[in-house]
Amino acid sequence: MAATLSPDLTGTYTIDPAHSRIGFVARHAMVTKVRGSFNEFTGAIVVDAEKPEQSSANLVIKVDSIDTRNADRDGHLRSNDFLDLATYPEIVFASTGVELTDDTSVKLTGNLTVKGVTQSITIDFDYEGAATDPFGNRRLGFEGSHVISRKDYGIVWNAPLETGGVLVSDKITLEFEISLVKDA
Question: 29, 123, 127, 132: least buried by Cβ within 10 Å?
Fold first, then answer.
């Protein structure tokens, strides 16, 4: 049975980074996928279960925390070829609209700023449920993903392959597994 958003869930929540994941997937050499994540981020969500359109979300990701399980690749991703950590230390998302599409699905629209470029995106989230943990914290869970074009953010570095194609795909899938803790 699917979880549903109920009125008692209204409130302000903070993202629990220890129990959340913000990741990405890119094609490498056109034959495999490379997965990575950002290990440091903060965010808050205001949930209005009775008037979902009045809900909001913001997220700040530390570029330095990128982790693909390969130090050389992580260093390259932090360079000006990709995310330009020295100039743009954060990736920011700020919501501009929320739409409850059914009792378990939310469309979160907002401005995603990467490497100084802001684009509007809409992320489809599934509401995974609510629970009170053993420490008395009220928690909500959401999972979602969205595909972006890295070129839309000025990230155009690539290398051609002998067999055709390129080393890194333009399309990047952003993945969100979010555990929220209700503020006291």
Answer: 132
Q: Please state which CATH class domain 7-182 belongs to.
A: mainly beta
- Please spell the DSSP secondary structure of the chain, one letter per residue: ------GGG-EEEEE-GGG-EEEEEEEETTTEEEEEEES-EEEEEEE-SSSGGG-EEEEEEEGGGEE-S-HHHHHHHHSTTTT-TTT--EEEEEEEEEEEEETTEEEEEEEEEETTEEEEEEEEEEEEEEEE-TTS-EEEEEEEEEEEEGGGGT-----B-TTSSBSEEEEEEEEEEEEEEE--
**pLDDT per position in the chain (184 positions), as tens?**
355 667 788 999 999 999 999 999 998 877 889 999 999 999 999 999 888 899 999 999 999 999 999 999 999 999 999 999 999 999 999 999 999 888 789 999 999 999 999 999 999 999 999 999 999 999 999 999 999 999 999 999 988 888 888 888 899 999 999 999 999 8
